[in-house]
Structures are given as structure tokens and as C-alpha cells.
Amino acid sequence: MSDGSGDIRREFTDLFDVYWAIGVAVWLLVAAIVVVFLIRYRARGDEGDDAPAPGRSSNTPLELTYAGLVAAIVAALVYLTFSTMGDPGYRATAQGLDGGDPPADAELIDVTGARWNWRFDYPRRGVSEIGTDVRIPTLTVPEDRPVTLRMTSLDVIHAIWIPERRFKQDVFPGRTTTMTVTFPDQGFWRSGGQCNQFCGLRHAEMAFDIRVLSQGDYAAWTRERAR
Amino acid sequence: MSAAPSARLGTRRATLVELLAATDHKRIGLATTATALGFFAAGGILALLMRTELARSGMQFLDHDAYNQLFTMHGTTMILLFAPPVVMGVATYFVPLQLGAAEIVWPRLSLLGYWLYLGGALTVWSGFLTEGGAARWAWFAFLPLSDAASSPGTGGDLWVLGVALSQLGVLLLGCSIMATIVRRRAPGMTLLRMPLFCWSMVATLLMVLVAWPVVLATMVLLFLDRNVTDVFTVGGGSITYQNLFWFFAHPLVYVIFFPLVGVVGEVIATFSRRRFFGYRVTVLSLLLFAALSTSVWAHHMFTTQGVNNRFFSLTSTMIAIPAGIEYFAFLATMWRGRIALRTPMLFALGFVLLFLIGGLSGIFVASPPLDYHAHDSYLVVAHFHYTLFGGTVFGLFAAIFHWFPKVTGRRLSERLGVWQWALMFLGALLTFVPMFVLGYEGMPRQVADYAAFRDWDGLNLLATIGAYLLLVAFLLFAVNVLRSLRIGAPAGPDPWGGQTLEWATASPPPRHNFDRLPPVRSYAPLLDLREERARAERALREAAGGSDAARAPAVHEEPAP
Q1: Of A43, B389, B396, B558, which sees the most CB atoms within 10 A?
Q2: 3-class secondary structure per residue, B475-525
Q3: Are A108 and A148 contacting, i.e. CB atoms less than 8 angstroms apart?
Q4: DSSP assignment letter at B148
Q5: What is the C-alpha separation between A201 and B542, in angstroms, rounded?
């Protein structure tokens, strides 16, 4: 997967940097103006002196020009967001009304949420995984290959957040939602996925581990588990 | 005008009947504001309990069920039982004064609104007294978690009823204020001569009139769903509920800071000794903001796959345009002013700087690719606390410090106020900045605990320390109020050099508000008088030979009455 398809992380990071930089710059600018004005225009002497300070109280052309400038920044941000949402990688990850369909070669995993546990079924492999009272379940996925989670709930709304992939998706009863993620590296993330929609008593503990295997190990694991 | 009223409010206790049935808008406004501040304290205590539990990983003194009740009730209290009523209370007191009106229109409706609010709020809280405890479904009560099967119990029903009653109260309070604005403006006060605060209330109340009926209907439907028959628990019902709820609840979050935009604008103008800059454009921007507010709700639903994310991302980001115009006006008003850094001004500047963090992070979460990570994480918790704490609470304290002398006839201590401000500013940074980092690193909101291996203990401890700083700040405020009511210096009609009509009457104002009104020729009628006087003095000096070219100190003389 050289095109990074399904990897939200790159799009997230690119966009994050721009938004973050603009946000910090605007805040610093405003804070600097406030501080400079406080120093420069602080009342000398009697602060109770309420005589009016001179100066005009409107400048409509200036204000409209400024509004146009803000509108231009907004337009640029919206453009960036929209073009990111048109990116093939994003469209492979975020599905539903956001656009894309799961890639045809994706590994399909059926996810069922129920208070307060997850169940993962690998329909093409005959493998199933569910947590127990003492152990949260583990989502095992192949490395560097898109994995489509086809999710539903048995009771209330849940959500799956995988912070490592910078992505989440709500999980509804009576509806199916999908998300596609790709893990470029092998590894193990303890509680790497967690419920992200408050669902009652033990919501805080409704998590699952994520284990990413090489494609060979993954094939071996599924054969082993299917037996 | 007699000096009697000023002595009376502070010292003589009103009889119970007077309290229960007073139709004076000042009494209703004060009761509403004081009640809302009581709920602010109660909601704050819940927050402190949560922050104490979260200071370290592992469960210390709460269990999951208790924690879930706490954050549900904290959110419900702050955003439904404190913030909308408090802005209605302040407006019920001050809008008629700023308009030069003798009374509010429909005072009995307003009074009914107050009692519905109080009764509803107590109904919500009475859930704690029931066997199963209070509601525990987060303040947005998404279905099907909030249906009878998933959340049985009386506490939940009390929550639904209480929210409906209290918000009906807010709506009635709002109707009365709106009618007053339409019908009771002083002679000469055209719409474009209304003070900025009144205009911010117009924009606020337009949103209230659109959004509040929706929450009433939604709560009725939720009640039916829980107790009578399936309403939302079929088909796409859970998405329908979210659409209905956020259609109310997003305008709601603008409703609870808009009035403070008006207050902050007036405070900045007053303490910069300038006329508010760009009044007309700001009024337009407030109306534009209010119009946009009804088309952004589904940015709360980016991760549902049930809405058009592009549309709601576009409308939500466009909010930055009117907000940017308002910030420009704030700063331009300070430009070339003579800034008196008194406590109301400090809180107003706190609003400017802290609310900005909330606004800028709001642009961030309005972008779906970013929100897919941020949604329902501590990043969002940090974001909305900068709008609600940095915005609403700082703005509210600007209003309180600004108007307390008008309401009580006594000044608050500037010294204690400065300490309160400093602790609040520091506390707001210390409590909520770590939450941005925690959210980015993967901490979800509404969790009673986090695992020790996450290494989130340090940041959470910082946030908890910040929360206790805020507690100290609010205790200082309580001390300040009590101190002022006993030994506060008399304020006089106009302690700050105010610009709007409420400063043209006694403090506290008499029952009928005004004995005499100054002429209203602009949105800052008292500033007009001061400018006139300054011009007259200049002319006199020139006529006398212009020996003293320096500006004579302004004669501090009350224009009226």
C-alpha cells in the first residue's frame, strides 16, 4: 500500500499543522495587541477620570475590509478541509455520507458492541473474538492492509476510537456503520481502541487491545484460531 | 429622587409574599441571577468531586455509577440550569434600565418564568434523592441509552420533566425581555440607538425563540418514549433524537455567551473612555451569527454517518466571520482610549483572551478530518470549557463587577476582585490546557477512570490543582460580596463613568427606575452628555482667553437625575 490508502494519519497531521499554526498565530496576535494597548493607552493618573477619549467610533470600509480578510481565511480553511475530504485515503477511511466505500481488498471484520464488551467476527476466516470478565478482547489485524470494521450495537450507541489512527466512528443499534483503517506497522496497543460514546455504568472500561501482525503471521493466526 | 431605596434593599428583608409575587423586573432579575449562581456553585462542587477523583489513575473515592451521575448533573446544571437562566436574569434586570423603561412588559409572565425555572431545576436535582439516584446519561441524554429499558428509574424521569420545566421558564423570561425591547424603549431610542447589550439580547432571544420550543417538544417526546410508547426507539430514531437535541443545543451554546459579548463590549468601551467602535457592523455581525446558529447543529454528529459533514463543516467554520468582526470591534475600541484597568475591565479582557482559545479550537473541531480524532475526547472538553468558562463565566463576572454597584448601591473591593481575577485566569489555564493534550493523546470524555500505564496522571493532577484554584477564586468572590454588603463604599449613581441609561438613575434604582431621563441621541447617551460638557468647557476657556490650553479635569457631576 504505497499510496497510504486508508491511512488517516497523514491527512490528519497535514491539516492539524495548518489549523494549529493559524490558531496559535491569531491568539498570539490578539494577546499582543491587548498587551500593547494596555501599556500604550493605559490611563495616566486618575483612573476615575471619565472624560471621553478622542477618536472616531467607526470606519465601515476598514471593518468590511477586515471582515473580507477573515472570510478569506475561512474560505482557505474550508477549501483545505474539503480537499482533504476528497483525498482517496480519507475517502477509504471515512465512509457513509462522507463519500468512500471500503476498498475491495480490505480485510472485513464484523464488530458488535454490547454493554460493556466488544465482539469481533472475521466472516471470511471463521474466527471470533470476545472479551471475558477478566480480559478485554483483542482486535488482531494484518499489517499494512486496509481493515474494514463493519459495526453494529446490540443495545445503546457506542463508538470506536482508535487514537493511534486518529479516527473514530459511532456504533448504533439497528444500523451498520463502517470505518476502514490501515496499520502500517506491527505492534501491540494496550487498550488501543475504546468506546467513545457514553454508554452507561462501565463505559470507561469498554476498551479492546489492538495487535498488528505481519501478513504471514496474521494468516497463520487466523488458520490457528479457525480450527 | 430620594436616597431611601438604596438603603432599603441592602438592609430590610422583604416579606415572603413580596419575594414570591414581586413583579418588579429588578426583583425577578435578581432572584433569577442569584438562583442561577446557586446552581453554578452546586455544579461547581460536582466538578470538584470529579476532578478530585481524576487527579490520579484508579478509582479513589467514587464508584463508576456515582461518577456517571456527577458528570451528567454537572453538565446539565451548568449548561441548562445555570447559564441560560443567568443571562436571562441579568437581562431582566438591566434591559429595561438600559432602555429607559419603567418596567418590563408582561411582568407576571416573567415571574412565572422564574418559578418554572426554579421548580424545574429543583426537579432535576431531586433525582439525587430517589432510590436509583439522578440521571446518568450525559447532559445530552442520547437515545436509546435514555429509554426506559436502558435507564430505568425515577431520576431519569425527573431529569426530563425538570429540563422541560426549567427551559420553559427560560423561554418565558426571554419572551418578556423581547417584548420589552420591542415596546418600551425610551423616547428617542431608535433600534440603532440601543446599547450593545440590548442588541446582543435581541440576537440571543431570536435564537431562544427558534430553539427553545424544540427542546420542549423533544423532552415531551422523550418522556412519552420512556413512559408511554416507543417514539424514538424505531428505525433511525436515535439519529432523529440527536438532530432534534442539537438543533436546540447548538443555538443554546451561543445563547449563553452572546449576552456576554454585549456586556464585554460595553465594559471595554466604558473603561477605555471611548464610544464602542463599529457599533453598526457589530450589530449586523450578531444578527448574522444568530442566523448561522440554526444551521450548524450537526457538527456534533460528524461521526454518526448520518449527516452531510461538508455542509455542517462549512457553516460551522463560517461562524468565525461574525466572531472575528466582534473581536475587531473590541480591540478597536481600546485603540487610543484611556484605559482604566478596573475589575470589570480585567474580566472583560479575560473573556477576550480565554474565549478566543475556545473559538479557535472551535474552528479546529469544525473540520471533520480533525474532529474524527477530537470528537468526544478531552480535546472537546477543553474546547467548550474555554467557550463556557473563558467566555460565559468571565463575561458574567465582568457583568457582575460592572453592575454590582448599580444593583446594591455599594462597591465591591477592587483588591479582592483583582485576586479573584488572577486566580480565575491562572486556574482556567491550568485546568483546561492540560485537557487539550490529554484529548490529543487519546483520553475520552465522560470516563470515571483512566489506566495508570497511560501516563496521564501528571496532566490530570495539574487540571485538578487548577480546579481548586478556581474554588479559591469563587470563595474570594463570596467574601467580597458579603464584605461589600456590610461595609462596601457607597457607589453613587455612576461609579464607573458609564455610557448607558442605567447609570442615569440611583443605585439601586427606585421601583419606577427613573425620575428623569437624559435625551437619547446615540447608543451611548451619557457619553454624549460628557462630550457636550467637554466641548462647552473648551469653548468657555477659549472665550476666556485660552490661558490654560491643557484639558481641564472633567467635572465629575452626574448628568441625571
Answers
A1: B396
A2: HHHHHHHHHHHHHCCECCCCCCCCCCHHHHCCCCCCCCCCCCCCCCCCCCH
A3: yes
A4: T
A5: 79
**Angstrom distances, CA of residue B328 to CA of A20, B44, B320, B499:** 21, 33, 12, 20
Strands A107-114 and A147-153, by their bridges, are parallel
Query: Is A161 close to B305, i.e. CB distance below 8 A?
Result: no
Contact criterion met (CB below 8 Å) for A118 and A130: yes
CATH class of the B22-189+209-230 domain in this structure: mainly alpha
Note whether B22-189+209-230 and B257-482 share their fold: yes
pTM, two decimals, is: 0.94
Q: What is the pLDDT of residues A17-47, one digit of tens each?
A: 999 999 999 999 999 999 999 999 998 877 6
DSSP for A153-206?
A: ESSS-EEEEEGGGTEEEEE-BT--EEEEE---S-EEEEEEEEE-S--STTGGG-
Measured CA to CA, the distance from residue B463 to residue B226 in angstroms comes to 37
Contact B236 A53 (CB under 8 A): no
Q: Does A98 touch chain B (CB under 8 A)?
A: yes
For chain B, the domains span 22-189+209-230, 257-482, 492-561
CATH T-level topology, domain B257-482 = Cytochrome C Oxidase; Chain A (1.20.210)
Point out the residue among A42, A81, A196 whose CB comes nearest to the CB of B367.
A81
Poorest-pLDDT segment among A79-93, A137-151, B157-171, B465-479: A79-93
Q: Are the C-beta atoms of residues B373 and B380 closer than 8 Å to each other? A: no
| Long-range contacts (CB closer than 8 Å, 24 or more residues apart) made by A130-135 | A131/A208
Contact (CB<8Å) A43/B314: no
Nearest-angstrom CA–CA distance, A177 and A181: 14
Mean pLDDT calculated for residue range A95-105: 76
Cα torsion B494, B497, B498, B504 to 10°: value is 40
- pLDDT in the model for residue A25: 97
C-alpha cell recorded at residue B89: 436574569
Alpha carbon distances (Å) from B251 to B200, B214, B290, B541: 14, 11, 8, 54
For residue B283, list chain A residues with Cβ-Cβ distance below 8 A.
none
ipTM (interface predicted TM): 0.94
Q: What's residue B142's pLDDT?
A: 95
Buried b (16+ CB within 10 A) or exposed e, A188-222: ebebbbbbbbbbbbebbbbbbbbbbbeeeebeebb
How many CB atoms within 10 Å of residue A75? Answer: 14
Kindly state the DSSP code that residue A25 receives in the 8-state scheme: H
- In 10 A of CB A55, how many CB atoms? 15
Do A167 and A85 form a contact (C-beta atoms < 8 A)? no
Under an 8 A CB cutoff, do A43 and B551 touch?
no
C-alpha cell at B511: 421601583
Give the strands of the sheet with A167-171, arranged side by side.
Answer: A138-142, A207-213, A187-195, A158-162, A167-171
CA dihedral B354, B357, B360, B365 (to 10 degrees): -130
